[in-house]
From TrEMBL:
Protein name: Fe(2+) transport protein 1-like
Origin organism lineage: Eukaryota, Viridiplantae, Streptophyta, Embryophyta, Tracheophyta
Organism for this UniProt entry: Nelumbo nucifera
Stated family: Belongs to the ZIP transporter (TC 2.A.5) family.
Residues that span the membrane, as ranges: 58-78, 90-111, 131-151, 215-235, 247-267, 279-297, 309-328, 349-368
Keyword Protein biosynthesis included in the entry's annotation: no
Length: 369
């Protein structure tokens, strides 16, 4: 009888537990569903005020435009500042700091935003929650940047080799052999001195390096422009004053130092004045243009709509891949593995500190932007 009473007690307990847990699960599911619905609705609250947000957006347009112009033009005007010329150590350190800014922008800002958008509960479970589209597209974007970098360099190198006539190569080789025969030192002490006129390939190698600098500048500007427009669009469409205020300060810091990195690449590419001016202009106006575009589309643009999340999420992923590749391969690796930094451990340490400061400062900005 005692055993039966124990079994009855356990049975009653299990029934009560199943009923209670079912109610708890149903309440949690309803709460989660309600939270998802609220998250996908337009923002509302004390911070949302269109009249108060408009002056902040105008301030953002002016301040970001000015800081972007200062950042991108500072390296271009370094000809008049001896300490900031490309052959000085300070230029290398500042460029390393800017490369750290660009690297942290890709890893800490653009790529996490893409993951958040494409994993948003406002999107359908299939396919957006089943596959990491952000990482996949960032990887493809980095591979495409590598293809552009490699193929363009190879095409230019091939054209440079084709332009040299075979007769010129044979004549240079004959002259080289004759000049080498003249440079003989006889053991009796009679010294016949001859000048070696072997053809030096410095022009071709210099042109190839210049081409790489130009490819780097163009691809880097493309990646920066894409994510700058996206950031400006989000800021312009938002009426949340609590978000806009810290975002403006973070974007001014971000645009200035990112512009310094791009300006250094444009300077090394040795473009003509008109092209330098155009590249600096497009970098400076992209974020303000995105803000204006967001303000114009604020009535139709919904930040949490599926079309907006997918479009901006995919753009952010592709931009992150470009920025990460350019920062690691074409900026940091090219400088740190180059002969200048390899000759000086002291300069390497200073540059590494600059990179870490750039990454750390931009990572700190991720708290607000």
């Amino acid at each position: 009888m005692a055993t039966n009473s124990v079994f009855r007690t356990i049975f009653v307990f299990l029934i009560l537990f199943s009923i209670f847990s079912g109610r708890v699960l149903s309440q949690s599911n309803s709460r989660s569903t309600q939270a998802v619905v609220e998250e996908c609705q337009p923002e509302s609250g004390n911070c949302n005020s269109k009249s108060k947000a408009l002056p902040l957006k105008i301030i953002a347009i002016v301040s970001i435009l000015v800081t972007s112009m200062v950042g991108v033009c500072l390296p271009l005007l370094s000809r008049s500042v001896p300490a900031l010329q490309p052959d000085r150590n300070l230029f290398v350190i500042v460029k390393a700091f800017a490369a750290g800014i660009i690297l942290a922008t890709g890893f800490m800002h653009v790529l996490p935003d893409s993951f958040d958008m494409l994993r948003s509960p406002c999107l359908r479970e299939n396919p957006w929650h089943k596959f990491p589209f952000s990482g996949f597209l960032a990887m493809l974007s980095a591979v495409v940047a590598l293809m552009v970098d490699s193929i363009s360099t190879s095409i230019y190198s091939h054209r440079s080799n084709v332009d040299v006539k075979p007769t010129e190569i044979e004549a240079a080789a004959d002259g080289d052999s004759r000049d080498r025969e003249m440079g003989v030192v006889i053991s009796s002490g009679i010294h016949f001195h001859g000048h070696c006129h072997a053809p030096m390939d410095t022009t071709t190698s210099g042109d190839s390096q210049l081409l790489r600098y130009r490819v780097i500048a163009m691809v880097l500007e493309l990646g920066i422009i894409v994510h700058s427009v996206v950031i400006g669009l989000s800021l312009g469409a938002s009426d949340n004053t609590c978000t806009i205020k810290p975002l403006v300060a973070a974007l001014c810091f971000h645009q200035m130092f990112e512009g310094m990195g791009l300006g250094g690449c444009i300077l090394q590419a040795e473009y003509k004045f008109l092209k330098k001016a155009l590249m600096a202009f497009f970098f400076s106006v992209t974020t303000p243009f995105g803000i204006v575009l967001g303000m114009a589309l604020s009535r139709t643009y919904e930040e949490n709509s599926s079309s907006s999340l997918i479009t901006i999420g995919l753009l952010n992923a592709s931009s992150a891949g470009l920025l990460i590749y350019m920062a690691l391969v074409d900026l940091l690796s090219a400088d740190f593995m180059g002969p200048r930094l390899q000759r000086s451990i002291k300069l390497q340490i200073k540059s590494y500190i600059a990179v870490l400061l750039g990454c750390g400062g931009m990572s700190l900005m991720a708290k607000w932007a």
